[in-house]
Design a protein that fits this description.
With 133 residues, the protein is mostly helical. Helix content is 79%, strand content 0%. Helix 1 packs across helix 2 and helix 2 packs antiparallel against helix 3.
């Protein structure tokens, strides 16, 4: 019990210190134009790097999801020639056989598609913000 209380106390203390440090850094940054420029440059560089990482991970996840769906489609419709994945990285749709999906599978596929669309939109916003900076 004492250990749990001590962990909670340490977590609260760490959170407090992080907040105080952030406020101190923010106030120093507001007072010093050079430091403000340097901090903004660092933040923009980090954001650009994160956006590239997220884009790569998103592209990989999109390919994996597409491959998963294609395998499910092939299992339902029997053996067929798998569609090519040449156009995936260029944003072109890959033709897939049009077979009806089971209700649960269809809703899961729709959720995954919506998530990919949302991630793409967020990535475009980040790119546009990075271009403006």
């Amino acid at each position: 019990m004492d250990s749990t209380f001590e962990n909670v106390f340490q977590l609260a203390q760490r959170g407090f210190r992080v907040a105080v440090g952030a406020v101190a850094t923010f106030s120093e940054t507001l007072q010093d134009p050079q430091q403000r420029s340097r901090l903004l440059s660092q933040l923009n560089a980090e954001l650009g790097q994160r956006a590239q990482e997220w884009e790569g991970k998103g592209e990989f996840t999109e390919r994996e999801a597409r491959r998963f769906v294609e395998n499910l489609m092939q299992q339902q419709s029997g053996p067929a020639a798998p569609p090519t994945s040449e156009g995936m990285s260029k944003g072109r749709p890959v033709p897939t056989p049009a077979t009806p999906l089971a209700g649960g599978l269809k809703s899961e596929l729709q959720m995954m598609t919506d998530e990919v669309v949302a991630l793409r939109a967020e990535l475009e916003k980040l790119r546009a913000a990075d271009d403006r900076a």
